[in-house]
Amino acid sequence: MRRLMILFFILLFPSLSYAGVLASKTRIIFPQGQDAQSLTLINVNAYPVMVQLWLDNGDREGLKQAEDAPYLAMPPVFKLAPREMRSVRIIYNGKPLPADRESIHWFNIYEVPATPPAGMTARQSLLMAMKTQMKLISRPHALIADAEKSVDRVQCQRANSAPSQLICSNPTAYYMSFNEISVNINDHYFNAAASLDFMIAPFSSAAFALRPAAIKRPLARNSMEMAFINDEGKIVRRLVKW
């Protein structure tokens, strides 16, 4: 049964399969009024690991809880044996959050071998440490529209001063996360260069560099396709006419 669960986690979230500790979700949506959520973690390494959890504002180098983070992870530190699964909790601590738009924080999973694997020194095993960051999106009561349908309101156009740039504006109260943006301009195919986050904040705009597409998607002339990532972490494609 445990082997089946490991295979399920890897198949469900292949983009995270490089990590040794996998989570049961790729993102966490926290509705206003909810005090806590549970998340299942599984160690797919062949060796035990020590796991540290914390919330921050997206610091890629940090290894500690942000003082202003409105959530806490419990337990913050624990050990996972090979193939062991454990449920952890993310608890809202009551700090105020915006009421008119979503806000974002980051749930961090840091893993390091509990003991050096066979043939390795303690120093070498530290090189195997890995940090995974997951988006935690706080959603206020006021947002009653379907987040998935809101992607239809995102508008993109080429920048007048830099035709190789795509400017996308998000007039909604939701964070828009993308897997891919493909563009056909006069039968020339481009992809928006993905950043590490590849998202647009509520009521904001973002600029993406256009790169010639290595793989041409079957798009109509002068049209665009957005591959949007929904609440469940699934990719939803939308066609947009220029």
TrEMBL record:
<dbReference type="InterPro" id="IPR001829">
    <property type="entry name" value="Pili_assmbl_chaperone_bac"/>
</dbReference>
<dbReference type="InterPro" id="IPR008962">
    <property type="entry name" value="PapD-like_sf"/>
</dbReference>
<dbReference type="InterPro" id="IPR016147">
    <property type="entry name" value="Pili_assmbl_chaperone_N"/>
</dbReference>
<dbReference type="GO" id="GO:0030288">
    <property type="term" value="C:outer membrane-bounded periplasmic space"/>
</dbReference>
<feature type="domain" description="Pili assembly chaperone C-terminal">
    <location>
        <begin position="169"/>
        <end position="236"/>
    </location>
</feature>
<dbReference type="Pfam" id="PF02753">
    <property type="entry name" value="PapD_C"/>
</dbReference>
<keyword id="KW-0574">Periplasm</keyword>
<dbReference type="InterPro" id="IPR050643">
    <property type="entry name" value="Periplasmic_pilus_chap"/>
</dbReference>
<dbReference type="InterPro" id="IPR016148">
    <property type="entry name" value="Pili_assmbl_chaperone_C"/>
</dbReference>
<feature type="signal peptide">
    <location>
        <begin position="1"/>
        <end position="19"/>
    </location>
</feature>
<comment type="similarity">
    <text>Belongs to the periplasmic pilus chaperone family.</text>
</comment>
<dbReference type="GO" id="GO:0071555">
    <property type="term" value="P:cell wall organization"/>
</dbReference>
<feature type="domain" description="Pili assembly chaperone N-terminal">
    <location>
        <begin position="22"/>
        <end position="143"/>
    </location>
</feature>
<protein>
    <recommendedName>
        <fullName>Molecular chaperone</fullName>
    </recommendedName>
</protein>
<dbReference type="Pfam" id="PF00345">
    <property type="entry name" value="PapD_N"/>
</dbReference>
<dbReference type="InterPro" id="IPR013783">
    <property type="entry name" value="Ig-like_fold"/>
</dbReference>
<keyword id="KW-0143">Chaperone</keyword>
<dbReference type="InterPro" id="IPR018046">
    <property type="entry name" value="Pili_assmbl_chaperone_CS"/>
</dbReference>
<dbReference type="InterPro" id="IPR036316">
    <property type="entry name" value="Pili_assmbl_chap_C_dom_sf"/>
</dbReference>
<keyword id="KW-0732">Signal</keyword>
